[in-house]
Amino acid sequence: MTTRLEREHYLRAADVDINGKWMPSAVFVRMQELAEDHATKVGAGRIYLGETMGLAWVLTRVYLKMYRYPCLGDTITVATWPLKPTKLTFLRHFKMTDSTGDTLGVASSQWVLFDINDRILRRTAIIGDYPYDPDAPTMLEEPGKIKLPPDMEFKETRKVRYSDVDMNGHMNNTKYLNWICELFPSEHLKTKRIDEIKLNYIAEPYLDQNVDLFYKEADGGWFVCGKTEEKTIFDSFVTWI
């Protein structure tokens, strides 16, 4: 059974930013779609799990390291493979390469199975033995819990809009990258690029919900988080070069 999946992708205008470079949120799009394609190939795709078992894949943490951003018109290859699951989490890694095989970036991610009806997490064993290669490489350390510094600075309140949400009405995982980038001045975005980003997805904001965004510069990067009156939505840490 397939333990690794890779796909080529030609970078078009919708994939790049104002500098003509691969947009960070578009990197997340490729990763998320490839993860879903791989899960489908091994018999655990979103549609199958939802319709037959009442389960949904939920991305809880991700850690991305980019060495170089390709440009509009470039062809890139994204590969993914799972590691050995724990009792509650599935670990998945990614590698992005250019047309010559040079590494563009790597990522690690953590996923869980959510019971749609009972609204609880299920153990990984509920879907049987998930195929993985015990000799598969580890690209990055596991994306652990982010500990925010005290006195985070309020930046702005942002409403979840139509273009932010998926068909379930809650914010798509890839859109957080845009929110994070857009907290910084345009001149910063023209001259800097994300080196590393760690993201913890904690709760789901819904269409028309207001999210308060906070940030603070510390530990060689920026901590960014989103909160509502009742709960934390996400925590993140990003470094720029």
Please describe the topology of this protein.
Blueprint: E1 5-10, H1 24-41, H2 46-53, E2 55-66, E3 75-82, E4 90-97, E5 103-115, E6 120-122, E7 153-159, H3 175-181, H4 186-191, E8 194-201, E9 210-218, E10 221-227, E11 232-240
Antiparallel strand pairs: 1-3, 2-5, 2-8, 3-4, 4-5, 5-6, 7-9, 8-11, 9-10, 10-11
- Structural class computed from helices and strand pairing: alpha+beta
- How would you name the CATH homologous superfamily of the largest domain? Hotdog Thioesterase
Low-confidence stretches: none
Please give the CATH class of the largest domain. Answer: Alpha Beta
Predict the CATH topology of the largest domain. Thiol Ester Dehydrase, Chain A
Q: Which word captures the global form? A: globular
Taken in chain order, the helices and strands follow as: EHHEEEEEEHHEEEE
Short description:
The chain is of the alpha+beta class and 241 residues long.
Describe this structure in words.
The protein has 241 residues and is an alpha+beta fold. The protein is 16% helix and 37% strand. It has helices spanning 24-41, 46-53, 175-181, 186-191, and strands at 5-10, 55-66, 75-82, 90-97, 103-115, 120-122, 153-159, 194-201, 210-218, 221-227, 232-240. Strands 1, 2, 3, 4, 5, 6, 7, 8, 9, 10 and 11 form an eleven-stranded antiparallel β-sheet that branches.
